[in-house]
Design goal:
Elements: E1 5-10, H1 24-36, E2 39-45, H2 50-65, H3 71-83, H4 88-103, H5 115-118, H6 121-137, H7 142-169, H8 173-193, H9 198-218, E3 223-228, E4 232-238, E5 259-262, E6 279-288, H10 292-295, E7 296-303, E8 306-307, E9 309-314, E10 317-322, E11 329-332, E12 340-349, E13 360-361, E14 365-371
């Protein structure tokens, strides 16, 4: 066993850096613990985004140089001096509320996919109240009020992201695009103000911009959203790659013993399921009216995001595939659809290594139509 060690870690939520996030409890424990285990060097990748990471950036620096220091005393001193004697306690409670929300979250998924599990309605309401209380207590002291307002700017990122997520999950991509553009402009303004990070802008564009733009185009007139397919699908792993031979894509296959899993509301990891690097199969169904051919000229399925390459089957027949991971795509199902129940199966190749613990279908699937012109 090694007698000495070095340590490297991220000081932000991997592949996201938009909403307030805290590692106060992590560093309070980990750095002193590692020091006692003969840690001789530490490298913490940090983004200078003080409106969303300020307190734990400070603590990570102080403990890196003084691992035997009292973390609670360091932070009490920080909150008092940074936000003032009167507002310091309210801001301490604000950051500790966020810290506790992430620390207790039973999910390892990175990027934007677990934020709603931390920012529950209760957490959002408490944070809002604490920020308002702190602003009241800091009245008359411009420097403290400015620092609280900076934190509030970061918190509004979280509020807007939750709105964006809700709009995407409801298939309301026109609204999602409006919210996304406001959030992006907010992030750019924070960078210009000197306390935001360009990575926030970059990650918003990289991980959300394409989904929003493609979704807005896919649902714009003359197209019409008919349905957001069920969040819950039947699911199984296919570690031997035998799904096709076993008929996993066929309507007559009995999938009653398959798991029932959420798709866009929770990752597999958030549901307590392992992130296996293998083939994943999903099955669900949707209904079309008897006269759908009279109503609709074309029918499409829009997949907002799948973590893996995907092959799509409708009523037992392959109707499309996507060879790029996590890129929105659509398939034309006009010729494969039928009146009544339609069985949709998706084979996802999730064998490529990932560090985000996502897996499979992770954004909504939309049923979209081009209506026939009235005569």
């Amino acid at each position: 066993m090694a007698k000495q060690m070095g340590y490297r870690a991220y000081n932000y939520n991997l592949a996201e850096c938009t909403v307030p996030f805290s590692k106060l409890s992590v560093w309070s424990h980990d750095i002193p613990y590692l020091y006692r285990k003969n840690l001789i060097g530490i490298s913490i990748e940090t983004l200078p985004a003080w409106h969303i990471y300020g307190p734990h950036i400070y603590l990570s620096i102080r403990l890196s140089y003084q691992p035997e220091a009292d973390a609670n005393a360091l932070m009490d001193d920080y909150f008092t001096k940074f936000y003032g004697d009167k507002a310091g306690q309210a801001m301490k409670e604000y950051w500790l509320t966020i810290d506790e929300a992430f620390a207790k979250m039973r999910c390892h998924s990175g990027s934007f996919f677990a934020l709603h599990l931390a920012y529950t309605p209760d957490v959002v309401s408490r944070c809002q109240a604490l920020l308002e209380r702190a602003k009241e207590l800091a009245q008359g002291v411009p420097v403290y009020l400015a620092r609280i307002t900076m934190a509030e700017e970061g918190f509004q990122n979280a509020v807007q992201y939750l709105q964006l997520r809700d709009a995407i999950n409801q298939g309301e991509f026109a609204s999602a695009k409006t919210i996304y553009e406001k959030l992006l402009e907010r992030a750019k303004a924070q960078v210009k103000a000197g306390y935001g990070s360009q990575y926030t802008v970059t990650y918003l564009q990289r991980f959300l911009g394409g989904i929003v733009d493609r979704g807005a185009a896919a649902t714009a007139p003359p197209r019409r959203l008919l349905q957001v397919l069920s969040d819950v699908w039947r699911f199984t792993w296919d570690e031997r790659g035998e799904g096709l031979q076993l008929g996993y894509h066929l309507p007559q296959t009995d999938d009653s013993r398959w798991l029932q899993v959420a798709t866009y509301s929770k990752t597999l990891d958030a549901q307590g399921l392992p992130d296996k690097k293998t083939i994943l199969w999903y099955r669900t169904s949707f209904r079309l009216p008897q006269d759908y051919q009279r109503l609709y000229q074309r029918l499409f399925l829009f997949f907002a995001e799948v973590d893996g390459t995907a092959t799509v089957y409708l009523n037992g027949h392959q109707i499309g595939e996507q060879k790029e991971r996590r890129v929105p795509f659509e398939v034309d199902i006009t010729d494969g659809a039928k009146a009544g129940d339609n069985l949709l199966a998706v084979r996802v190749d999730h064998s490529r290594i990932t560090e985000l613990f996502l897996g499979g279908i992770i954004r909504p699937v939309l049923l979209i139509a081009v209506e026939r012109e009235a005569r």
